[in-house]
Structure formats: C-alpha cells, structure tokens
C-alpha cells in the first residue's frame, strides 16, 4: 500500500469518539476524523523525509535488541489483537481502546459497526486512548524516555502512522515505523512470538477468522 493511501485509510478505519472532558475533545466527529487524517498525513511526510525510518518486517530483527540497531518494539494494537499474538519483550500501549459508553447514539454506532465491520473482522468499536502519549512515556521511561529508539507497529501499519505522528509531535526523535504492520510478516521475521496465532493473522477475527481456519486446514495458506 502506498503511503498516501495508507494515510487516508488510517483515518477512515479509525472509530473515534470525542469526549468533552479531555483537552482537544468535544469536537464534532468530522473535526476529529480530520485530525486523524492530519496525523496520518504528517507521519507520511516524516517517513518520506527520513525523519522516521521505515522498517520492513523482514528487517525488523536487525533493528531490534542490543545485537541490532537497538530499537524497542512499541505495539499500539488493542489488547484483543495483542492477546492473539505478540512479540515477547515489546512495549504495549494501545492507541485505541474499546468504547464502553452505553449512550443511545454510541449504541447505534456500535450496531452499525457490528453489521458492517465487527461481525466479519471481529474488530470492536473503539475510541482513541486519551492517555496514549502519557502511557508511552511511562512504558519507555527505562529506555531513555523521549530519547528511546522505538519501532512503532500495529496490525496493518495504519494506526501506527497516527501513533508515530503523535509521538514525534511530543518530542520523540528516534522513531521507526513497521511498514505494512504485522500483517506483512512471515514466519521468522520476529523470532520470539507468543500467543495462539501467527503475527500476520492476529488482526483477523469474526467470520473472517472461521474462513482463515478453513483455508489453513486445506493448506491454501500457511
């Protein structure tokens, strides 16, 4: 996927609900979506300029750990994706959390989301983690804080684009982005994986997961 298309997809696939109780929230949904587009587009520019390094999954092992370039993997996927498969030792700070609001408008949005997306992919209706930047600071404090070398990753490389822009805006300057996300991984790209699934399939849930299991059983995919 070209970076420009990834930036647009990053905004279109994010289910963001604003909250008036937090700075910058309480905005109309269109304004919040526009902000997400801006973050993703800004990250695209950072990657193109070289300010943020793009790392292909097959090169990730060389970028991580003391024997490589010294990056630490920052996994920004939601908990239910990480539970299926994760890289041992990676930091985990979800960019989006499950939206537990039970108001009538949100419930309607959840039903629409379930019918069009959730049933087929298993993805929950989410809201942006309002403490994302603060949570990252706590998670990487021992790695040098804002001087930490972070390889930011998600399932398809879209949410991590937004995360990269947010972190860069907050002063992080040693950032890398896992191009294409874990979905582009092959077996062995990350040697220490834990969980019931392969990394490249961890984003797949719902009815799609059933189809995946059938394809695996038939040997169509591996």
From TrEMBL:
Q: Start and end of every Rhodanese domain?
A: 67-194
Q: Name one Pfam family in it.
A: Rhodanese
- Keyword line: Membrane, Transmembrane, Transmembrane helix
UniProt key word Transmembrane: yes
**PROSITE patterns per record:** RHODANESE_3
Q: Which SUPFAM superfamilies match?
A: Rhodanese/Cell cycle control phosphatase
Keyword Transmembrane helix attributed: yes
Which chain regions cross the lipid bilayer?
A: 201-221
Name the InterPro entries for this protein. Rhodanese-like_dom (IPR001763), Rhodanese-like_dom_sf (IPR036873), STR10 (IPR044614)
Q: What is this protein called?
A: Rhodanese domain-containing protein
Upper classification of the source organism reads: Eukaryota, Viridiplantae, Streptophyta, Embryophyta, Tracheophyta
